[in-house]
Amino acid sequence: xxxxxxxxxxxxxxxxxxxxxxxxxxxxxxxxxxxxxxxxxxxxxxxxxxxxxxxxxxxxxxxxxxxxxxxxxxxxxxxxxxxxxxxxxxxxxxxxxxxxxxxxxxxxxxxxxxxxxxxxxxxxxxxxxxxxxxxxxxxxxxxxxxxxxxxxxxxxxxxxxxxxxxxxxxxxxxxxxxxxxxxxxxxxxxxxxxxxxxxxxxxxxxxxxxxxxxxxxxxxxxxxxxxxxxxxxxxxxxxxxxxxxxxxxxxxxxxxxxxxxxxxxxxxxxxxxxxxxxxxxxxxxxxxxxxxxxxxxxxxxxxxxxxxxxxxxxxxxxxxxxxxxxxxxxxxxxxxxxxxxxxxxxxxxxxxxxxxxxxxxxxxxxxxxxxxxxxxxxxxxxxxxxxxxxxxxxxxxxxxxxxxxxxxxxxxxxxxxxxxxxxxxxxxxxxxxxxxxxxxxxxxxxxxxxxxxxxxxxxxxxxxxxxxxxxxxxxxxxxxxxxxxxxxxxxxxxxxxxxxxxxxxxxxxxxxxxxxxxxxxxxxxxxxxxxxxxxxxxxxxxxxxxxxxxxxxxxxxxxxxxxxxxxxxxxxxxxxxxxxxxxxxxxxxxxxxxxxxxxxxxxxxxxxxxxxxxxxxxx
Amino acid sequence: xxxxxxxxxxxxxxxxxxxxxxxxxxxxxxxxxxxxxxxxxxxxxxxxxxxxxxxxxxxxxxxxxxxxxxxxxxxxxxxxxxxxxxxxxxxxxxxxxxxxxxx
Lengths: 619, 103
Known about the structure:
By secondary structure, chain A is mainly alpha-helical. Chain A has 24 helices and 2 strands. Helices cover 76% and strands 3% of the residues of chain A. The two termini of chain A are 50 Å apart. The model of chain A has no long low-confidence stretch (mean pLDDT 86). The mean pLDDT of chain B is 87. Classes of the chains: A mainly alpha, B mainly alpha. Chain A binds chain B through residues 584-585, 587-588, 590-591, 594, and chain B through 22, 25-27, 97-98, 101.
């Protein structure tokens, strides 16, 4: 009993995959499954996930982690292993994942009820649950990479969910391409690690297992110079950076907001984007060996927090503000990891996940994409959740205090953090003042239940997270809130002015990508095209290729097509001759029947005789 | 001479009778001839039954009893068939089976 949950967690992880395959198979054969049943089995998966990951968390605290591994590929002393590795971090993260999944699936069952592709949506949600668990429970870097790609794929599929809309399908492609940069960097980092381990680990086996990552990092550190080590770490960190939408790559999160609101809540704010923080924590043994990379992480995280907060202040779209805010908060988490305070990063990851999910869901509650009414209103729950996000109340307040504690060695960091907290309060309360409070709307009961569940969890988090005193961050956020109110009274709509234009456009980074990098790629393609046409206009090459085509045609005509033609001719002849066999006369058919029965009986008799005579001795 | 008759003689007789009946069913046009041919085939089967009843020691009287049943069933079948043919003959005024196609 003691290890029941950790032993059986693998079935809970595989269950969403089975549901996904079941839905896929059912749709392939056009079998109609009732929406109710589909929602129920999906919710059952997440509910089981909550119970089992909760049990696994308690088990890991009592008896330590657990690991099941089997070898997938073996080449000499290189092992590619798959398995389930459960430690405190992955158990906590899985609890967060399944809880938010459960609530959001409940929410989506009413939010997406007008969607004709309802089945596909729930299938993708199940696939996402599996992919995320696959990533979280990976015992080594390879499985993390596989899970990384899988969640990227699901994100792409869900952003382009309404693919008939060209804007959304283009946004999906753009998101996917920007994510590929990070994936490539991560893969390059992994390959470098394998190369170094393959070359220098003397008798050992190359597995890149997390359980002996300390040894791996020391071997890698010993056999590379400072600069190479920094580059190696940077490659690995770039993967995390892109997934977590950090500074130069944060633009993809804006495009990701084209997904349906439940998906934005689940994937693009609460769980998937935090995978970058997860990877950074997992790779911390490697990163701690280089002071520069830790500094880089802290600076980048802090810079993103400030930059994206500044961008968020001037946004007018609620979902864009929330997306920028996600980037900013993930930056804070990364900065905490860089300072070595992993606990705080994990706590803030969880708290931020719940707060963001609550914000998105309450926004979607009154602004359904499928409704005809397009005027934006905000429900009261949005304002409650924004108090938590700004750090004025609930679990958000405690986390901000903890951040202030963590950054105490460095005054500069402290000031930057306070600035970020100030701006966070400004942008979220500007939204609250900008849009009217929803009155008279009665959202569906399931949507209300899920939002209030999230708010309940945030409130409960106040007592779970220690350190709730009204310190400097609180007063900073308070000042930010008051500033926001003053701003919104003074200027209702900030579309004018150079500053707002620059900030609102996200400092034109996205436009820079489109204008220069995209056109650079176009120029590259043009050059390739030129080389191509130069080669293809060569006389000798043209002559040779014509000859080759002639030979290929000859072969095709006389070798590949001949048997097919022969078959056709034979079939035609046979059918023309056998046509006469149909006489409409019962007696003829009796004769045929007798003939066929005779042949079959004779064949059986002969076979039987043969078996008796020749093989009788074997049995 | 009679002592040399074994199981194969009976079976071959049955086989020849069956083939004759089959050929009669397939080839003849007259409905009465077809009926006679069917009786030939039944008789062939009956011969097989009695043969096995005679030669297989573990069967006891099963073969004979089946043959008796078969004779009874055959008599009933013959009576019914003859009545149907009579009715059809009155309808069509012919005994050629090719004219019965639309029944």
